[in-house]
Amino acid sequence: MTKIAVWCRHENDNIIGIGPNIPWYIPSDFKRFRRITERACITCGQTTYESFPNRTLPNRKIYVLSFDEKYEVSDKENHFVVNNPSLLRDFSEPLYVCGGASVYKMFMQNDAPEVIVDSCYKGELNPELSGQPVDITFCIDMMMRDYEKVSPDYDEDNVITTVWVKKGAEVSKEILNHITLSIINK
After folding, report:
1. Of these four, 32, 36, 100, 122, which has the most CB atoms within 10 Å of its CB?
2. Pseudo-torsion of CA 94, 172, 6, 158, nearest 10°?
3. What is the β-pairing status of strands 133-135 and 15-18?
4. On the CB side of 100, how many CA atoms lie within 13 Å of its CA?
5. Which parts of the chain fold into alpha helices (H)?
6. Count of CB atoms situated within 10 Å of the CB of 76
7. H or E stretch including 121?
8. 8 A C-beta contact, residue 44 and residue 100
9. Which CATH number does the domain housing residue 152 bear?
10. Is the pTM for the entire model greater than 0.85?
11. Residue 9 sits in which domain range?
């Protein structure tokens, strides 16, 4: 199985959220995420799952990481609660890791993704949001050290997106082609 981390972070401080909110609104970023993950299996934490409109993303199987054994998902046919993250290690198909920060960090520390789709927003954060900034600096430091950039920078609406592959990892061309085409096809 290939694991692919997909995130959008703020330039310079690696913030991905303020409290439970994404501190920018860029429709093209959401569309790019949709194209990359559509018809795929994704995993995310409970807070990220609850931030999805109607607690769902169409045309995806969602594996929600939660410590709450009684946690209820909105679509029992396509969404699944995972109380033990190690159960995802032997996943048979590509798995897209979609946040939040603790989920990214857990995968980077224990079962590092072979591919990272790194989107970096160069604009301003929404000044109206209050709450604790959520950053993924740990993940970015690891990416810079243990991964190599395998794509040019794709610039759209003040978001630079690049693809990184873990040094020494073998990743199918099919997965990399899908990601690249999802990024460049608007």
Report:
1. 32
2. -150
3. antiparallel
4. 21
5. 27-37, 46-51, 101-110, 137-146, 173-184
6. 9
7. strand 115-121
8. yes
9. 3.40.430.10
10. yes
11. 3-184
